TrEMBL record:
Keyword terms of this UniProt record: Membrane, Transmembrane, Transmembrane helix
InterPro entries: DUF1145
Superkingdom of the organism of origin: Bacteria
Protein name from the UniProt record: DUF1145 domain-containing protein
Transmembrane helix listed as a keyword: yes
Residue intervals passing through the bilayer: 7-27, 33-57
Length: 88
């Protein structure tokens, strides 16, 4: 399970890399606009996940600063990793 979570985080990291490259060096045509929309959507969804998780479990689970920010970056895959670490 740990290897699958790591692989999923690498895939999401690659997606963020493409989205950030598009911000600084836009792709040609309508691809840039589509990637801008995807960037906003991904940021909103992961931000919402982070706020909901910290709001619901922030006082029950001791999380490091990196774990909180990793939810914003990796979304559900980070939540699965945090659950795995804190359930042991």
């Amino acid at each position: 399970m740990k290897a699958l979570i790591l692989l999923a985080k690498a895939a999401i990291g690659f997606v963020w890399l493409v989205l950030l490259v598009n911000i600084f060096h836009p792709f040609p045509g309508v691809a840039a606009m589509a990637l801008y929309i995807m960037t906003g959507f991904l940021l909103m969804m992961h931000g919402l996940q982070m706020l909901i998780f910290i709001g619901a479990f922030g006082d029950k689970i001791k999380m490091s600063r990196w774990e909180k920010w990793s939810i914003l970056i990796f979304g559900i895959f980070s939540l699965l990793d945090i659950r795995r670490k804190h359930m042991m």
